[in-house]
Amino acid sequence: MQEVFTLVLFMRCPTTRACFVSIRSFSSSNLLPALAGHEPNDLLNEVRLLSSRGQLHQALSLFYNSSPELHSLQTYATLFNECARHGYLQQGLRLHHFMLAHFPSCTSDLFVTNHLINMYSKCGYLQYAHQLFDAMPKRNVVSWTALVSGYAQCGRGVESFRLFSDMLAERDCRPNDFAFTSVLSSCDYLCGKQLHALVLKMGLGASVYVTNSLITMYSKSYKVEEAWTLFKSLSCWSLVSWNSMIAGFQLAKLGMHAVGVFVKMHHEGIGFNRATLLSVFSSLCGSHVEVATAFMKAYSELGGDVSEFYHLFLETSCQDIIFWTSMITALAEPDPAKAFFLYRRLLREGLTPDLYTFSIVLKACAGFVTEQHALAIHSQVIKAGFKDETVLRNALIHAYARCGSIALSKKVFEEMGCRDLVSWNSMLKAYGLHGKAKEALQLFPQMDLKPDTATFVALLSACSHCGMVEEGLRIFDSMFKDHGIIPQLDHYACMVDILGRAGRIVEAEELIRRMPMEPDSVVWSALLGSCRKHGETQLAKTAVSKLKQMEPENSLGYVQMSNIYSSGGRFNEAGTIRKEMDGSGVRKEPGLSWIEVGNQVHEFASGGRHHPQREAICTKLQGLIGQLKEIGYVPEISLALHDIEEEHKQEQLFHHSEKMALVFAVMNEGKLHGGGNVIRIMKNIRICVDCHNFMKLASGFLQKEIIVRDSNRFHHFKDSICSCNDYW
Predict the structure, then answer these.
(1) Where are the PPR repeats (predicted)?
(2) What φ, ψ does residue 505 adopt, rounded to 5°?
(3) Long-range Cβ contact pairs of 602-609 (< 8 A, separation 24 or more)
(4) What was the pLDDT predicted at 435?
């Protein structure tokens, strides 16, 4: 197959001397005619351009297919440098042989030979690099430094130091910063001390690059006191200086000193990077759990992947329960499965979980589809003698509720001999999540403690989920009047949601205007959701505008506005919104669903993509859809893309992730937790109208309870009825 790529030629008009660019596309078979009649610099410029784009293979192909008359020393040097940078030894060898055959005079050129030595050194081909070096009639500091660096990078510190010493004997060959940093990277303490003395003698002590290398050398030699003295002597520190010192304390197993340097770095206003946090992470054995967790959280906020900590942790031999608990804490929400795996491994290592460890593992259990993991930890809590600990009972209430078992949450709550405010708030929130507002309102008067702001968020959320508008208004008004609690943003967001969902959108808008603080994105999202439900286009535009200002990368405003237009039959406007969204680089969060079969969690995207049993699932789903249509199921196609055929709109809806998950559960009902009478599905976004209707009918037809946990609440489908009473 021929390679096809774009050739960009930088040209100059011979008459006006004006520059212009010629852009053409060529295949590998006609590269030679493309460059015919041009100068060597044209080829050089194109080789540099391709190399800068990471297209070294295309650059080499272009070079080999061009006329030898266009080959220059600069072009060879550029290609050798790219081979060195990418570690492409075979390509470099071929190019070297090609040069010897077509341009033998290059072998005596200092510039090209230096690039060859650098390439072979970087690729670990030191014997050949040294042969070229020995054959050179003349050498400069670049020649020496390339070979010194090569030996150092290969861990051959003795040869690197010997070469550096030989360089000092050369006339007019004064080592530069890079030569010192190279040899220091692989030498031992005694050689390093000699080099340090030479650095001071040559006046390079002020070089931050050389000093950083000295700090690292002393640290690796376990002379951390000397490294620290040198660090403190610097007039200004670079990020590498801080990282080198933190890594030095970590190597010396002085974890708290590493933490201290990090704190000092933070106080100095120095920004840190991932290398900083990874060094600190390795120093955290024995630290307080809050300290270790704070560092992992900071790493995540930098955009780092906590799984990097996870893999690094698995390589450590730390036998400290605090450190293990910190790692589980960092993973509990973003990756419950990995957190639970670490907990099991902790037990295998012979460590004994403490109260805090159990509470964090239960937090991870709240992220699973079923309650079986929480039940297992509950039994271990009892066995460990912690069954009456209020903190753990509170964690159990939360975990069972999030896994779909409000009955188990209620049982734990009722068995508590002593309840604190978190206990009451957890139970109130659990009732709200499951659409049991009446139970929440009946429980509230039984509280024997003064409620706080979280109490009223739980109560108002419960009212919102069930459409209990008057009760919500009464509770909101009582906050300050009866309890002295000033409503905050969360409370106003709940009230906007309560009023808006009930169709009282004018009142919701008026409430936003009267807020004593600026409404945040949660408030505007609540109003937008109400506008979506009741088709209030103009007010929705205002809410979307606010959301774009506050969270420009959030897709919610675009998606909801497009849905509002589509529901009203204004498909052109909906298409415009989608184009605007694409043009802004905003991406909609893909809908995903999870279901637990046996001991394995299965993930489904729309259409069942990537699932190994996709074809069988789709076939089974088609059959179920046909059966449900016979008892009244009508696909809700108003929100499907308008520019596709009617049958394709239905197909788009049929393959939503929660439908795929349901069918897979039916196919494997013998492996479901609890014998298959209850099917539990977890979804990352809110369930759509069509899937909600589908689940209702399916629950009656299949004679099973279907529990769907979406991003907002739980839906319990049973006997063709949903616990939300179609109010969500």
Answers:
(1) 140-175, 420-450, 452-487
(2) -70, -35
(3) 602/661, 602/664, 604/657, 604/658, 604/660, 604/661, 604/664, 605/657, 606/655, 606/656, 606/657, 607/655, 607/660, 608/655, 608/657, 608/660
(4) 93
The whole-number pLDDT of residue 182 equals 93
| DSSP code string of 430-498 | HHHHTT-HHHHHHHGGG--S---HHHHHHHHHHHHHHT-HHHHHHHHHHHHHHH-----HHHHHHHHHH
Cβ neighbours of residue 259 closer than 8 Å, sequence gap 6 or more? 280, 283, 284, 287, 291
Place of tokens 């096809």: 4
DSSP string, 598-619: TTEEEEEEGGGTT-TTHHHHHH
Pairwise CA distance, residues 606 & 74, whole Å: 53
Distance CA 620, CA 608 (A): 13
Collapsing DSSP to helix, strand or coil, 49 comes out as: helix
> What Rg, from alpha-carbon coordinates, does the chain have?
34
In the chain, where are the structural domains located?
488-588, 592-722
CA 673 from centre of chain? 31
Residue 45 neighbours by CB under 8 Å, 6+ apart: 8, 9, 10
Residue 4 CA to chain centroid, in angstroms?
Answer: 35
Alpha-carbon distance values, 249 to 138, 203, 212, 557 (Å): 44, 28, 14, 49
Do residues 437 and 406 make contact, with C-beta atoms less than 8 angstroms apart? no
Pair 325, 355: CB distance under 8 Å: no
CA–CA gap between residue 187 and residue 177 (Å, rounded): 16
E strand segments, 566-639: 592-597, 600-605
- Structural domain 488-588, CATH architecture: Alpha Horseshoe (1.25)
Q: Which residue type does 580 have?
A: E
H or E element in which residue 529 lies: helix 521-534
Find where tokens 């009955």 sit: 407
Q: Please, what is the Cα angle at 209 between 206 and 211, to 5 degrees?
A: 55
What are 712's two structure tokens? 């907002």
Cβ-Cβ contacts under 8 Å for 536 (sequence gap 6 or more): 505, 530
Which burial class, exposed, middle or buried, applies to 705 when counting CB atoms under 10 A from its CB (0-12, 13-18, 19+)? middle
**Helices of type H across 109-207:** 110-122, 126-135, 141-153, 157-169, 177-184, 189-201
Residue 516 burial (CB < 10 Å; 0-12/13-18/19+)?
Answer: exposed
Q: What is the pLDDT of residue 315?
A: 65
CA distances 599 to 310, 335, 369, Å, are 22, 16, 11
Q: How far apart are the C-alpha atoms of 124 and 118, rounded to whole Å?
A: 10
Q: Give yes or no for a contact between 520 and 489, defined as CB atoms under 8 angstroms apart.
A: yes
Answer for the pair 309, 342: CB distance below 8 angstroms, yes or no.
no
Q: Would you state the pLDDT for residue 652?
A: 67
Closest by CA to 472, choosing from 501, 448, 452, is 501
**Residue 405: Cβ within 10 Å count:** 22
Give residue for tokens 């990471």: 54
The amino acid occupying position 264 is: K
Integer CA distances (angstroms), 288 to 42, 293, 405, in order:
62, 9, 34
Query: Per-10-residue mean pLDDT for the chain, 728 residues long?
Result: 40 38 40 51 87 88 88 92 92 94 86 95 93 93 94 93 93 88 93 94 89 92 92 87 89 82 80 74 65 63 64 67 84 90 91 95 95 96 96 97 95 96 98 96 96 97 95 97 96 97 95 96 95 92 94 90 86 89 87 90 82 91 95 78 45 81 93 86 92 96 95 94 88
**Alpha-carbon distance 724 to 104, whole Å?**
83
What does residue 601 show for φ and ψ, rounded to 5 degrees? -95, 130
